[in-house]
Amino acid sequence: MPSDAPTDTQPASAGQEEGSAPLSRAERLAQQATPERGGDPLVAVILTWLVPGAGHAYLGRMAFAGIAFLVVQGLYLIGVVLSDGMFLEYLPNEMRTRFAAALSPEAGNLGALIVHVKMFGFGYPYPRVWPSTMDLGTALTATSGVLNVLLMSRAHFDARHPARAERAPLGPALAAASCWVLPGLGQFLQGRKRRGLLCAALLLSLFAVACYMAQGANLDRERHFYYWAGQFMLGLPALVAEFVHGHPILTDMPSRVDAGIVMGCVAGLLNILVMLDAYGYSEAQHLGTEPPRSPKSKARQAAEAGAQEDPA
Amino acid sequence: MSDWLIHLVLFVFACTVIVAVSCLFADADDEDAWRAFPKRWLGFMGGCLVVVLLMLLFEHTFASVK
Lengths: 312, 66
Prior knowledge:
The complex is a heterodimer of chains A (about 300) and B (about 70). Chain A has about 300 residues and is mainly α. Chain A is built from 13 helices and no strands. In chain A, helix 2 packs antiparallel against helix 6 and helix 7 packs antiparallel against helix 12. Chain B is mainly α and about 70 residues long. In chain B, helix 1 packs across helix 2. The mean pLDDT of chain B is about 90. At the A-B interface, helix 9, helix 12 and helix 13 of A face helix 1 and helix 2 of B.
């Protein structure tokens, strides 16, 4: 979409008088960000939650909206076809309540999930054999939910910050999505390589220990529906482990399976913090503000700045 | 290795990862994040110890089958 926003290479004229000192990159980005609003961020988020891409259509980005709709809903549709719409039949009878699906990753694509529940519900009153592509199908529907959450965060950001410089740094939603592909990848792409590697090492080692303790039982959505949902937030590593390790046939539950499934779930939930960290850093870069810091860090920075200004 | 010790090692490992990631999340500056790590780690472990003691107390008081 053509944009009349000043590019990174163009001089920022707004608020800069002739002869004054050139503005820094952060100041120029801040000037681009503040003057206009694309729409109400909350409306954009809710619309995207119900229909992927609708938030961007509301913001006037029709091409992006169309592609987002096709990708997210296409993934969900293929997943439903491959799993025969049976993912809620994983739940045992006593857990089949009205809001049972609310804690699944599919809830990120709420509109599709509502249609899914209306059409398939909890299946028939008698057990059925899972289709051979069940695991792939449910992985795709869950991926669709996570992608739509990322799309919602993108819609929220685009509503607040409609102007985008041509050579802008990595977008917040893309940074968060990178962390879902591999924990720490977003930080790595932002240039914070040490932090990215550390996040990857911490979370992947926790996940590996979890798989070892549970002997792979934690990777099975049928066995641990809700723990699997938490672990799914680890992203691609969890999916790859599930498809490589397979779904082991266990004659007896491993003695430390409980520790394994909890640690796997914790690894996935901690990756949400890593994704938020990447999002916050990129957002600050785009808006030209300070990245999130603790009060102590701010105080230390202020003290150091004060000492530099007044060395006496 | 005894089962009790294995559980303790696993618990400390999981706590260390949780506190490390929370430190990184709280502060964009790596050095400041690491400076806060020991205090946060001790605080987290202390909090867990309090929860364990409370659970043992409640179990002993209300759920004992002796």
